[in-house]
Write a sequence for this structure.
């Protein structure tokens, strides 16, 4: 079973080496898809193993999968597959370039390492490695804007996670003072040494602040719209759909370690503040956006804000809903970013005001775009509806009524802004070419989008082992009932 | 416990090297010439490596001694070298104008140092050794790094700020916990090296694009 822990990392490394050594255009073209498929398969295998006999370890306990790790690996794999497969250039002769192929594969590998390492220090190293892998992907187009975005992204991202590292160092110092130096979340969670609460408070505040920067939570979100709008569409999909969630996973792990020592109070305060501020930023700025990809980026800030609120509630229902939200948002957001790339290809622009009556002119891209946006707006039958409702209900159960009321109001404002933009772009009867000349092409593979959006539509109703996995993953974090 | 260092020599050495850490970062804020700042950064790396060596000898830890060698190579030689290359391609020696003047910056430093001692109280409560007592210096370095990042507009200055911050985090790690586990230490060192290399490449791209590496020019992305 330990093989499935090593395989994602080994595959990513091997593909990166092969792509770097110039092994042909075909390999560069499909490397990301292969890596994501392997990661997804390993995630599914680990999930089934975890549901039968709890945890899987490899490399002498350095790598470990509990239900949460397995679930997150599935998210990395499935979102990665949507972004890389859906983002495939429709021209079969196109070459993505050596650097691009290597960095995408390493990016996927780093995210897998982040969710599989049983060591908060290695988790940190992997999160920082994602910044390194994506820096040149953000700056891929080598325009002034992408250069500016890449600079801000690397500086803010690195400084943010450096603060998180200070937090992890202090946590390590606390375990050392308690006589058992360790950074393993498994040890800290299951046989916690007697940690000094005042030190853990400082450590956790710094760690949450740092990882929140990487998760794109306000007020440290300013890199996010720039980076997401300048990166190539599949990379934006990966960053928005899963990189933010991996940083959120880091917050959850730190929270679970600190919870028995200092209680929820401090962390709830921090996360509620960051969550509500993120929702407010998204609500205030989404309507003013002129660019489709920036609009999607603000929608990501909104969804990360909801996740922060779920982590603040920290009941089994809230955490389970947050994880469902991570998967649903990842699939829907990577799909819409992929479609935004196709819109750019077909229309030559991503400026919102220049895209009109897409549905009658180009149904091939408009229909997946519309489905993805409906999912992101949180309408049924898509799973984001159920997870958002569950987060609010969980908040009410924990007596956070005011917080949830404000959150719902802000989500509604964002909803109005987003749906106005979307209806402007999609609806209308089209001035120049009649419906007879409508462009039916999808400008890329259809199947990955059908699968991703189909899955988003179905997982909200899913029961059985998927529901068990979510429950187990929430239980792995030891949220108080 | 038998240690090769007598306790008074040990505490004097820890005091000396953390003092150099603090002094070098004050001077980095004070000096405006980028080349001088890079030299001071190398000095800071040297002091950090020496501090780790002292800790390694006092704890008779071979692993920590190896880490001190790593710190020496990375923070005193390689990273300043990368920055030096980034500046060397400037034809005129850079004198930069920070957003706040030197007097204000030095007053801010003294306030930040006090703040560092204030917020380090739960840390200092960990023990009574000279290493623990020096932890506020590491925290002060982190805050100084933030100040440099917030007030300097030249790309290389921002890199220097990031590295001062990183040295501060490393100092806190070594003083409180004798460093993080080796595998983490290696990963962290590699990450920092790669981040600095990436930022150096971006700096040279900014310079080709805009004519110099002044970040005040980066204003195209706004809401």
């Amino acid at each position: 079973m330990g093989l499935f822990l090593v395989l994602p990392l080994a595959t990513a490394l091997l593909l990166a080496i092969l792509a770097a050594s110039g092994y042909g255009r075909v390999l560069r073209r499909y490397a990301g898809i292969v890596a994501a498929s392997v990661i997804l398969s390993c995630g599914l295998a680990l999930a089934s193993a975890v549901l039968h006999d709890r945890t899987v370890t490899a490399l002498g306990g350095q790598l470990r999968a509990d239900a949460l790790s397995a679930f997150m690996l599935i998210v990395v794999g499935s979102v990665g597959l949507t972004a890389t497969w859906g983002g495939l250039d429709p021209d079969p002769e196109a070459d993505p370039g050596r650097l691009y192929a290597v960095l995408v594969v390493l990016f996927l590998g780093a995210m897998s390492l982040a969710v599989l390492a049983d060591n908060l220090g290695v988790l940190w190293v992997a999160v920082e490695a994602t910044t390194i892998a994506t820096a040149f992907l953000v700056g891929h187009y080598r325009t002034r804007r992408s250069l500016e975005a890449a600079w801000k992204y690397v500086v803010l991202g690195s400084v943010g996670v450096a603060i998180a590292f200070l937090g992890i160092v202090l946590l390590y110092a606390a375990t050392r003072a308690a006589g058992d130096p360790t950074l393993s979340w498994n040890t800290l969670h299951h046989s916690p040494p007697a940690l000094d609460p005042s030190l853990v408070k400082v450590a956790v505040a710094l760690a949450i602040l740092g990882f929140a920067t990487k998760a794109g939570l306000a007020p440290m979100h300013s890199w996010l719209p720039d980076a997401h709008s300048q990166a190539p569409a599949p990379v934006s999909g990966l960053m928005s759909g899963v990189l933010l969630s991996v940083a959120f996973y880091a917050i959850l792990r730190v929270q679970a370690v600190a919870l028995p020592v200092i209680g929820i109070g401090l962390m709830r305060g921090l996360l509620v503040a960051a969550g509500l501020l993120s929702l407010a930023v998204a609500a205030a700025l989404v309507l003013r956006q002129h660019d489709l990809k920036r609009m999607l980026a603000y929608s990501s800030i909104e969804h990360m804000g909801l996740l922060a609120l779920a982590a603040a509630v920290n009941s089994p229902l809230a955490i389970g809903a947050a994880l469902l939200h991570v998967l649903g948002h990842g699939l829907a957001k990577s799909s819409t970013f992929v479609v935004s790339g196709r819109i750019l290809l077909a229309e030559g622009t991503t400026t919102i005001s220049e895209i009109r009556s897409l549905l009658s002119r180009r149904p091939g891209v408009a229909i997946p775009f519309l489905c993805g946006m409906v999912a992101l707006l949180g309408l049924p039958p898509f799973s984001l509806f159920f997870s958002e409702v569950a987060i609010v209900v969980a908040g009410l159960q924990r007596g956070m009524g005011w917080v949830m009321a404000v959150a719902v109001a802000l989500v509604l404002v964002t909803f109005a802004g987003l749906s106005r933009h979307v209806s402007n772009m999609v609806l209308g009867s089209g001035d120049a070419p009649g419906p007879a000349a409508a462009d039916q092409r999808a400008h890329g593979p259809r199947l990955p989008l059908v699968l991703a959006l189909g899955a988003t539509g179905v997982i909200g109703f899913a029961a059985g082992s998927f529901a068990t996995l979510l429950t187990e993953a929430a239980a792995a974090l030891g949220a108080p009932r | 416990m038998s240690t090769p260092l007598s306790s008074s020599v040990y505490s004097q050495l820890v005091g000396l090297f953390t003092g150099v850490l603090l002094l070098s970062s004050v001077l980095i804020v004070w000096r405006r010439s980028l080349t001088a700042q890079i030299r001071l950064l190398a000095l800071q790396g040297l002091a950090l490596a020496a501090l780790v060596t002292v800790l390694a000898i006092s704890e008779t830890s071979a692993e920590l001694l190896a880490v001190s060698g790593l710190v020496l190579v990375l923070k005193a030689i390689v990273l300043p070298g990368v920055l030096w290359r980034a500046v060397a391609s400037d034809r005129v020696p850079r004198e930069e104008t920070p957003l706040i003047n030197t007097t204000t910056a030095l007053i801010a430093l003294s306030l930040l140092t006090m703040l560092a001692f204030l917020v380090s109280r739960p840390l200092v409560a960990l023990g009574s050794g000279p290493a623990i007592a020096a932890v506020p210096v590491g925290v002060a370095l982190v805050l100084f790094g933030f100040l440099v990042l917030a007030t300097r507009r030249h790309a290389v200055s921002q890199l220097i700020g990031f590295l001062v911050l990183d040295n501060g985090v490393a100092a806190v790690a070594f003083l409180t916990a004798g460093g993080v586990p080796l595998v983490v230490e290696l990963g962290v060192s590699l990450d920092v090296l790669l981040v600095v290399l990436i930022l150096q490449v971006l700096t040279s791209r900014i310079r080709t694009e805009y004519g110099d590496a002044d970040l005040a020019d980066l204003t195209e992305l706004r809401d």
Observations:
- Residues 182-210 of chain B form the longest helix (29 residues).
